[in-house]
């Protein structure tokens, strides 16, 4: 029997904390090779404090345990910035028979004014939860994973022989969307229904937290044509590249299909921080390639296949 595939676990401290060029070069190579082979890898030594992850997990529970009525009143479908609550059944992947079983809550950068078809704007926060029970830990966690997403972008750039600092020109006011997720126990889902159906991520770098011990994520390995289980380990993040990175790296980095089937007892929590870049930024890897597609255009194009985006919003990024 062929040996079981497993994603590598890369220690980022050699890049983030060390001054040694050898340490940095080793991490850059490990990340490059994993992104090329799997499009996915796991990381430790990432700089997000464990206590923050734990407080944030409690905060996600506080949110998802609110009465259904209150969660529905915060629906992202009514919000111009797609912030707020996505109920089970609100999203459906092309090709799947059934809708996703998960429920989610979206936040992004905090901006008093809605602009760029809702890429920028204010968040919605549940009024019945004191800040210390949700908003505080969620925001603290958002800022930390936002920082990590940018570091991963730099690493990926360096892996292709580019200066890591190229990311600064790409990220003056980057779009970073965070999606908290709760999957119901598998006994309560319908036959053939996924927690989240197979998909690739739309954008740039995804920084994914899995509640420790709550396995469920599977990544498709094209060469072997098999699903790789990704164990949910404490203090270990899953990192993956989205479609924009695959496009701009000319396929050097993969955007791999993945899905979730909750294998844990009880519900499973996770959280994906999607680090995209500036709305009107173009290819940071090969700035002279002539590819004029912007972050805003590429992400809205993909959203359209999953949620309805009104015409005005499409026009604002130059699509309609
Ligand atoms: O919950 C997970 O482990 C994965 C979530 C995911 O793939 C996504 O939100 O795009
Ligand atoms: Fe995903």
UniProtKB/TrEMBL annotation:
Q: Per UniProt, which keywords does this protein have?
A: Iron, Metal-binding, Oxidoreductase
Positions the record marks as coiled coil are none
A Pfam family hit: 2OG-FeII_Oxy
Where would I find the Fe2OG dioxygenase domain in this sequence? 173-278
Query: Which domain of life does the UniProt lineage start with?
Result: Eukaryota
GO MF, any single term: metal ion binding
- Gene Ontology annotations of biological process type: small molecule biosynthetic process
Name the family the entry cites.
Belongs to the iron/ascorbate-dependent oxidoreductase family.
Please identify the protein, giving its name as recorded. 1-aminocyclopropane-1-carboxylate oxidase
* Organism of origin: Podospora fimiseda
